[in-house]
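Example record

Each entry pairs one chain with its bound ligand, zinc ion.
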Amino acid sequence: MLRYIPFEGWKQTANEVNYKYPISVNTNCPHCKVRVNYKLSWATRTKIVEYAKSSCPSCQKLSIFIFITKASGSGLSGDLFINPSGDVRHSLSGIEDAHGLSTGIKNAYYSTIQAFNGHQWIATTVLCRRVLEGIVKGIVNENGKNGSPILAQQLKQLPDQIDFSKPILTLADAIRKAGNIGAHFDEDKEPDQEVAESLMDVLDYLIEYLFILPSQIEQLHNKIEKLGQSDVQELDESE
Ligand SMILES: [Zn+2]
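Structure tokens for the complex follow.
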């Protein structure tokens, strides 16, 4: 299995006649799970799919790197993959382009993934909380309501500042409207594959949000409560 290595892991690139590719990359070794730096010396230069082998500086085991080229601006670059995948957690797709999140929060999120993939469980939980703090603070400050500096209090203020129902109503309305267009014959307004695919995605989000996530969240919440009820409550009230 291939694992995608996000662009933030690229440490050094080469640029060969408008063809940009990584020659050094930081990622978790699929064998020992340590985050290491791999030097990439590409055996091929097909400008379609490239291939390189590199060994982990920590455990010395070999991994294979695949680079699938794609257009980038006026030149070529591509997507980088490692094999084996090593069963590591990926960053959320689309987070690189998420405008609402500051660079600082994105970096904290990437650090969280790195800590998790490095099997640093305590660091992961601390970093998760840090990312949450950053997200909530950003929303509270942006809306000019500099209320409590305590996270638990800020969380309670969130529904006053964000209309949580809006995205879900917009999703549902998009499905309804697109369905209407599909149901009535009109040659100029016929939904194509792209529209159908987007709509399937939207439908999946809706079902996930309404029926799958709530029970998963409930289960997770109960599990964390059981982990150490008194400790969790103490933190909750003081921070
Ligand atoms: Zn290794």
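The chain has three domains: 3-83, 95-159, 163-224.
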